[in-house]
């Protein structure tokens, strides 16, 4: 490879015990990585149909791609890579310009963002989308990325022959350059593993298939605006443009949070009690979190009352029957500890507690599940405004006067509790401002009812499906055009809970197929 290098600087009517929320990555969560290197790779292209009016001319031509990446990282380290194609020049007018990048398959929480630097385009807006590396058709769960303007030439989605479409350079003999793409990801945990970025189809003899056509466009040939589709294959040195090796050093372990929903609660000792905890860890995938387990203990006796592994949403649920309190005996407060044991070398342990008061009095439990929606405002230089609304179904026995509802972001309360309205089925909370961190962060909103026990009735409420908001980081990221307020970009999700997103700007993402996350209705038990 020809490189030039420069050093760059709830089952049943239960007690929902905890909720887990994804946190934004912390700047102190890992050791300081080594300085990245910047390299320029000279790549050779072969194109069909051949013409002196092609980009690069009739013969083979070269392009100098700039890549910046760390040569080594620690296991589990969060790091950045950037790739920008070099300057090109049209022979004749060109449209439907697309450029494909091969993504690594062994990293987690991969995000990609356009970072500017494009020049020479006269029409079309640059964007990025995941595509199938074999067919080049848009597919959110695939490991190839396309820079485009929304339309393709011969291979991919929205194909055609019109030169007046997609990314366009509507002048002959005009230099242009595609934008830089910034990537952020978490390294594999295995020392010696390589994280490789390249260009798909590298080394192909001919660009005759979608898999081998890495660079495509339509060249103008007719006054009608139609043109000739041109496909280009890239040399084999494009297969390994950026190679980062996982060093044999101490891993970067992610912090976890185990948090309690509903606060201190009361339970009828004559009935089994369901306890639920949910675990969160920034940048950990759902599969990684489920490798740990949650142990529930009675603090006074140190008795383990149950153990469960978190599910894909991070919830661990057990059911336990405590000794029944004889009639007339006083209530028994017990401190229950939910401890997530962590995952060795990957996720740290965490725990939380509640005071569970057991009573001999027959109690009716009124459980409310809140459906939470987070609508984002205009992303600012330092923060993102978010308006949260919770809807619910009133229980058969209405909430008593003085009932309060608390909004949470990332397991921490946001402002003071608000009063439950006397009528209606929705609550609007004051606007929250999420401060932007260096890196893109995922935040989750939940709502909890401040538990009330009165006259043998127990009202509690929580959120089973948090509303997710993604906020673009401030370092090395350029804010792309923002989706409409309250919109979803599910096309950018690779995992409904721990998501890999593209064009991150500050928008809400629900783990279901609509902007509102639907949970359980209120019920009595």
Let me know the number of strands: 37
Beta percentage is: 35-45%
Helical residue percent? under 10%
User: Which structural class do you get from the secondary structure elements?
Assistant: mainly beta
Largest sheet: 11 strands, antiparallel
Q: Span between N and C termini?
A: 69 Å
> How much is the radius of gyration in Å?
27 Å
The number of distinct helices, counting runs of at least 4 residues, comes to 1
pLDDT < 50 runs, ≥5 residues: 1-29, 476-525
Based on CA inertia axes, which overall geometry fits?
A: elongated
Which whole number gives the mean pLDDT? 82
Key descriptive features of the protein:
525 residues; mainly beta; eleven-stranded antiparallel β-sheet; nine-stranded mixed β-sheet; 1 helix; 37 strands; elongated; disordered N terminus; disordered C terminus
Describe this structure in words.
This protein has about 525 residues and is an all-beta fold. The chain has one helix spanning about 285-290; strands at about 5, 35-50, 60-70, 70-75, 80-85, 90, 95-100, 110-115, 125-130, 145-150, 175, 180-185, 195, 215-220, 225-235, 240-245, 255-260, 265-270, 275-280, 295-300, 305-310, 315-320, 330-340, 350-360, 365-370, 370-375, 385-390, 405-410, 410-415, 420, 425-430, 430-435, 440-455, 455-460, 465-470, 505-510, 525. The strands form seven sheets. Strands 1, 2, 3, 5, 7, 8, 9, 10, 12, 14 and 15 form an eleven-stranded antiparallel β-sheet that branches. Strands 25, 28, 29, 30, 33, 34, 35, 36 and 37 form a nine-stranded mixed β-sheet that branches. Strands 18-24-23-20-21 form a five-stranded mixed β-sheet, with no helix packed on it. It is elongated.
